[in-house]
């Protein structure tokens, strides 16, 4: 069989496939499960999808449009901002403000709460508009991470920090967008994890990865090996054992990209505390909480030292946390290595029992 005939057969087989499920159709089906729903939450997911399409377009054109490179400013964390950081920040703020369902936003790019024009909005959103942006100038995958809460303050008033600091188990939706060889939107509303791939020819996100399950075991660990000498001795011993067992090191340096690979293929993402940064680098509210919920919903685990990430009490809008997330067995193994007295209390079963509790949309 020639290469051409094989290609022709593949094309004909693809043409015979069903059209598939668009994000909009998926949202409508999900909404029908909640008789009291009036569509606000569904529209919010659409707003996030719209913003991600715009950011995807700007990323693809950045090298030609002047959006590549440094912006010459720093964010609240003291990190140098890229032009695309600010562009993505603005795109998501505008989309969420124009949608009308969100009363306030917390973004990595601004220190204070950002109030929208809609104090009557039912939701607040915590957001990392462009994770891994320092990779962009070398054409490496980047992403967006988001977390949605139903506000606890009185509708019509200005939301406060308490609306955002409810804790990870009060999220009503969380997810990320990966801008890579293809653009994917992956999110959960407490009923499993679903992935949607963007088809630019249709301008639609299509359901491509229904009910994602993270393999219980993996053979990949993802960490910044340049900091290994600053890790706790028990973490260094665990990494030595990983190498002895033939595990591969895979580290892109963008949380979304590393987490996504391990979610699909199995593996462990880790960013422990160091001697200089005992709380680690990952932001609890708009990075660790959403990724931890995705991990649990996909049968994985996510912990900070001796506690499930979702049970950590947030101390501030931009607080940081150590994190070990991914395949349940690998997370359990690293817990056994670093905190053997506490590992048994964080079994995958006990964490998944927590993750089955959802909040009314």
From TrEMBL:
Q: Which of UniProt's keywords are assigned here?
A: Carbohydrate metabolism, Cytoplasm, Hydrolase, Magnesium, Metal-binding
Organism equals Spirosoma soli
Primary residence: cytoplasm
GO molecular-function terms, A-Z: fructose 1,6-bisphosphate 1-phosphatase activity
Q: Where is the Fructose-1-6-bisphosphatase class 1 C-terminal domain?
A: 215-336
What do we know about how this protein assembles, alone or with others? Answer: Homotetramer.
| Tagged with keyword Magnesium | yes
Q: Name the coenzymes or cofactors required.
A: Mg(2+)
Which gene produces this protein? fbp
* This protein's name: Fructose-1,6-bisphosphatase class 1
| Pathway membership, UniProt | Carbohydrate biosynthesis; Calvin cycle
């Amino acid at each position: 069989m020639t290469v051409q005939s094989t290609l022709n057969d593949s094309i004909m087989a693809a043409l015979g496939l069903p059209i598939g499920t668009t994000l909009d159709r998926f949202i409508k089906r999900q909404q029908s499960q909640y008789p009291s729903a009036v569509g606000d939450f569904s529209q919010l997911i659409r707003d996030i999808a719209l913003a991600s399409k715009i950011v995807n377009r700007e990323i693809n054109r950045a090298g030609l449009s002047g959006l590549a490179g440094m912006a010459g400013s720093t964010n609240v964390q003291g990190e140098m901002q890229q032009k695309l950081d600010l562009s993505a920040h603005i795109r998501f703020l505008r989309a969420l403000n124009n949608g009308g369902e969100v009363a306030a936003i917390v973004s990595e790019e601004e220190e204070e709460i950002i109030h929208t024009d809609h104090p009557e909005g039912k939701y607040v959103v915590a957001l990392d508009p462009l994770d891994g942006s320092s990779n962009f100038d070398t054409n490496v995958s980047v992403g967006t991470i988001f977390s949605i809460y139903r506000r606890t303050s009185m509708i019509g008033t200005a939301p406060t920090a308490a609306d955002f600091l409810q804790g990870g188990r009060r999220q009503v939706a969380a997810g990320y967008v990966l801008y890579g060889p293809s653009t994917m939107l992956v999110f959960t509303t407490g009923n499993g994890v679903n992935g949607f791939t963007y088809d630019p020819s249709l301008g639609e996100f299509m359901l491509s990865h229904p009910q994602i399950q993270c393999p219980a075991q993996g053979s990949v660990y993802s960490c910044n090996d340049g900091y290994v000498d600053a890790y706790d001795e028990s973490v260094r011993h665990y990494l030595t054992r990983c190498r002895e067992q033939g595990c591969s090191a895979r580290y892109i340096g963008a949380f979304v990209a590393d987490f996504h690979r391990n979610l699909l293929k199995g593996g462990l993402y880790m960013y422990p505390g160091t001697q200089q940064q005992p709380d680690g680098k990952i932001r609890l509210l708009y990075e660790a909480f959403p990724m931890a919920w995705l991990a649990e919903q996909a049968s994985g685990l996510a912990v900070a030292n001796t506690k499930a990430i979702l049970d950590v009490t947030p101390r501030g809008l931009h607080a940081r946390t150590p994190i070990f997330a991914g395949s349940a067995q690998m997370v359990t193994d690293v817990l056994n290595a670093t905190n053997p007295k506490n590992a048994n209390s964080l079994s995958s079963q006990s964490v998944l029992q927590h993750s089955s509790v959802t909040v009314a949309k």
